[in-house]
Amino acid sequence: MSRFGYDFHPPRIPIDADIRWVLLAAFADAGPGHARPASPERAARLIQQFSLVNQVTSRLSAAQLAQAVTPALQEQISAVARGRVMRSLAVVEARERVCRAATEAGVDIVLLKQAALEAMGLVTPGQRYASDVDLLGDSAQIEELSRALEASGCLKRLRRNPKYHPVVFSTPSDISLELHIAIPCLRLNAQGEFLQILDLKRNNLVQVAANSQANVFVPTRAVLAAHLVTHGLIQHRFTPQHHPAFRVVVDAQIVELHRECDANSDTFGFIGSVLDRREFDALAELSQQLSAGNLDDLSPKAQALANHVIASSIDANYRSLLILQRQVQKIHDVGPINWAIGQAKRGFFPTDEDLNILVQNRIASNLGDAKRLTPVMLTSQLGRALARVTWASISRLWRDPLSPP
């Protein structure tokens, strides 16, 4: 199924001096050099809107950053980065906790996403921000692992859609441990089921995690790359508010996705049933060109992808359009009646996870307030999105995403 072209409709985004500086600072091997943003205040804001704080602060020294965006703004950005690094260190502790629990229970697990990237030595906690731990286990052993985690002090939380992601735990430091029994969107062949831990083992698609406990594995680089791509471009395609759009570009650079475009690479083979090859290649091209500091010679597909990740980070109209597209996709997938029932359940019977997210984001002060706010918030979100997109369509003008708010 081709997904490229019919659901990407971003406005055209000119790469001005501020955006150029931020992208070079976050991605280019040589950094921004002697270039300066036109507006230090706007550049500092863009770093945070693009969710590239960790990338910029890990690549530039404090002096380089202060010289470009003023010392006060540098300290503001660095403070955000320090807070994220502290959170990431808590995530590392949570990863070690689940690894110990798996070993004690004799249960095999495969680390995914950030946990795998760190275990494979591809990133440090300061380079790529993560707030939870994802792992893959055998559905037949989930209960054993759950008991071991509860014995270690973790608390189980309810999930709304448990088919491939049945259990979430919170550690004593409030880090989520998300237990998967399959990797959505990844298959051995177009007709197969989503990859499970037994599939990975039987096909030599896992390896023992270095310096880790027994029973703890990491996926091969091709599987890891495929998962990171589908997580950003498929699972969170329409929800940049939950998963920053630039994260998939960061991940593509980390795993050197352009090397996975080789005809003999397995990466695209795992995801070819859900992602058009042109979009896969566009992501690889975009990450490679950003590394080279070349922002002016992107192919039309790579430029469209660049417009998408930039606009979904800073353009309120485009974000509203994505929200509506997500709901249209759900209606198409499950039918209008089931969609309406699902929205009602989510509004009036939210899970612990839904409520905790509202409290953590300070939308509600406690779980009781969160429960009362949920139906109003969901209705308001869709209403605002519909009103914004309708007005933009009538006026046929997108608000300039580059102007100050």
Topology:
Blueprint: H1 17-27, H2 40-49, H3 53-59, H4 62-69, H5 71-105, E1 109-112, H6 113-119, E2 132-137, H7 142-151, E3 155-157, E4 167-170, E5 176-180, H8 197-202, E6 206-208, E7 216-219, H9 221-235, H10 246-254, H11 267-271, H12 277-292, H13 300-314, H14 316-334, H15 336-348, H16 352-360, H17 367-395
Parallel strand pairs: 1-7, 2-5
Antiparallel strand pairs: 1-2, 3-4, 4-5, 6-7
Helix pairs in contact: 1-2, 1-3, 4-5, 5-7, 9-10, 10-12, 12-13, 13-14, 14-15, 14-17, 15-17, 16-17
3D structure, described in words:
The chain has 405 residues and is an alpha/beta fold. The chain contains 17 helices and seven strands. Helix 5 (71-105) crosses helix 7 (142-151). The chain is globular. Residues 1-6 and 397-405 have low confidence and may be disordered.
Which terms would index this structure?
405 residues; alpha/beta; 7-stranded mixed sheet; 7 strands; 7% strand; globular; disordered N terminus; disordered C terminus
